Amino acid sequence: MLDHRLDDEYEQLRRTVAEFAKDVIAPAIGELYEKHEFPYAIVREMGRMGLFGLPFPEEYGGMGGDYLALGLVLEELARVDSSVAITLEAAVSLGAMPIHRFGTKEQKETWLPKLTSGEMLGAFGLTEPGGGSDAGATRTTARLDEATGEWVINGGKCFITNSGTDITGFVTVTAVTGTKGDGGKEISTIIVPAGTKGFTVASPYSKVGWNCSDTRELSFTDVRVPAENLLGERGRGYAQFLSILDEGRVAIAALATGLAQGCVDESVRYSGEREAFGRPIGANQAIAFKLADMEMRAHNSRLAWRHAASLLVHGERFKKEAALAKLYSSESAVDNARDATQIHGGYGFMNEYPVARFWRDAKILEIGEGTSEVQRMLIARELGLPR
Amino acid sequence: MKIVVCVKYVPDATGDRGFNDDGTTDRESVDSLLSELDEYAIEQALKIVESGVEAEITYLTVGPDDAKDALRKALAMGGDNAIHVNDDDIAGTDALGTSLILAKAIERAGFDLVICGMASTDASMGVVPAMLAERLGVPQVTYLDEVTVEGTTVKGGGTVKGRREGDVATELIEAALPAVVSVTDRTGEARYPSFKGIMAAKKKNVEALDLDDLGIESDQVGLSAAWSIVDTATKRPPRAKGEVVEDEGEGGVQLAGFLAAKKFI
């Protein structure tokens, strides 16, 4: 039997976060966004609510939830603001999840309780100026100094979320640690604690959107960390990363759905209030049809990410569904943001209106966690087309 | 000790609320939820336990089937168990009848401290805590902006202390337990339930009671027994359009005239 209703506790979680977003984030985010400030107070409160520990087991301070719970939370957060949502998404999927999935008992005990409580953020450094999804392009190196038992890391990373906040505890970086049997690069992941000598974090980027999210360029010059900071198996770094990427896509799809829905929320309200030529603009078919299309995109995005999440939670294969959800919802977010801005007219171009923020925040969704082109490639591959 | 927190399931105060033809609350057209003012009472109960006082927290509500949502939310925030008094004959009960039902249920459960919100967000009468104290025969300390509990032992006893801010003075009040207190919306923001709390709430016991269980006759409560009824209700008229001042060089004078006419200046 197919049932699209959420279980009571998931619905209660969704409502709780919706309330939090409306009461706590909405009144504060405009000013933070304008000032490009990281939302420390909001993150602290989210930590208290256990949001950073959602899909982790209780023994490490987690909430014992899953990716469906995380997706519901991300959607409701992004319905009001994407910077806050991406801060949580990256902290969970890229910061804590690799430690949980691949870490030793010691690594988990060291880092996870602080990550799941939200008092510390972890970051994942994969992308380099020379390329992100292309493993062969990795230039950052890590050499094991047998004499001291330390990794010596040199190189640089770019566009790394949550890597330079006051509460960032470490960055997990991918680095070339040798040459494989087939001559390819051996890539491993290594945990570099914040403040390690030689590890420098540049000033935040000036971005088009996601203004309250912390995004930095990182450089490593003879950075030394203990050999036991290796995360997971040596030489499996890139494969490990790929295995958590599909989950991240489901999360981003939920986030994109939230943005698409937020555009509908704001536009429906505005269309009822704003009058032109003696009646609310929503009474005009040109606006009403736009809104109907926007609602359709938000609704179908939701079905898509929840379907992918359902497969993921039940341990079934969800690669194609994750790509479909991510592709459709991110393009819907961009479409809805464009239409919402259009409906708002001149006000939609003013930063004080949420839809202006949505418009600025939407585009990155077609780029991050695999571009739309990458998603199409993955979907086509799943169709079994000749390569 | 045992703390009972009275909570009410009310139509969402941000919705378009109204009445049925018989003057009772229309519960159909607006979603209902846990009264926001009762969340402050829950928060204070949880704070008392977190301050080191050993206490069992029981939530109590009187309401229709859906009112268990209010109890579930309260239990997700924390606390131990809940009591839901639900009976078809309760429909239309006024504050006096409600206080009777609450008092009987509280006596049945046992208590050292009863905490209420300062009022409900629907009827907004704010009289139930006082009625409850009277029916239970214990002290009442109402409208507290701060509340603490001291000196409790396993055998009971102890005091509840509070601060009440008035227009002319701030009162520091205390009462020997058992007692009834009500707390204001200035006591501090209520916490949001965590997912773990939501999951844990599923396993907490909610006891369902009807009037029989409490030894209350059906003619003691309900609309026919009510001392106060809603006679008529008129929707608030939509806000009138504001007056637009055309500035042709003397806009300031016009503004001042407007304010003077309304006695603002």
Protein described:
The complex is a heterodimer of chains A (387) and B (265). Chain A is an alpha+beta fold. Chain A has helices at residues 8-35, 40-48, 67-78, 82-102, 105-116, 237-273, 285-313, 319-344, 354-362, 372-382, and strands spanning 121-125, 141-145, 150-161, 168-179, 185-193, 199-201, 215-226, 230-231, 275-276, 279-280. Chain A has three domains: 8-121, Orthogonal Bundle (Butyryl-Coa Dehydrogenase, subunit A, domain 1); 122-235, Beta Barrel (Butyryl-CoA Dehydrogenase, subunit A, domain 2), CATH 2.40.110; 239-382, Butyryl-CoA Dehydrogenase, subunit A, domain 3, CATH 1.20.140. Helix content of chain A is 50%, strand content 17%. In chain A, the strands form three sheets. Chain A has a four-stranded mixed β-sheet. In chain A, strands 2-3-7-6 form a four-stranded antiparallel β-sheet, with helices on one face. In chain A, strands 9-10 form a two-stranded antiparallel sheet. In chain A, a hairpin with a 5-residue loop joins strand 4 and strand 5. Chain B is of the alpha/beta class and 265 residues long. Chain B contains six helices and twelve strands. Chain B has a seven-stranded parallel β-sheet with strand order 7-11-6-1-4-5-12, sandwiched between helices. In chain B, helix 2 (68-77) crosses helix 5. The chains are: A alpha+beta (387), B alpha/beta (265). The A-B interface holds A 8-9, 12-13, 16, 19-20, 45, 48-51, 54, 58, 63-65, 69 and B 72-73, 76, 191-199, 201-202.
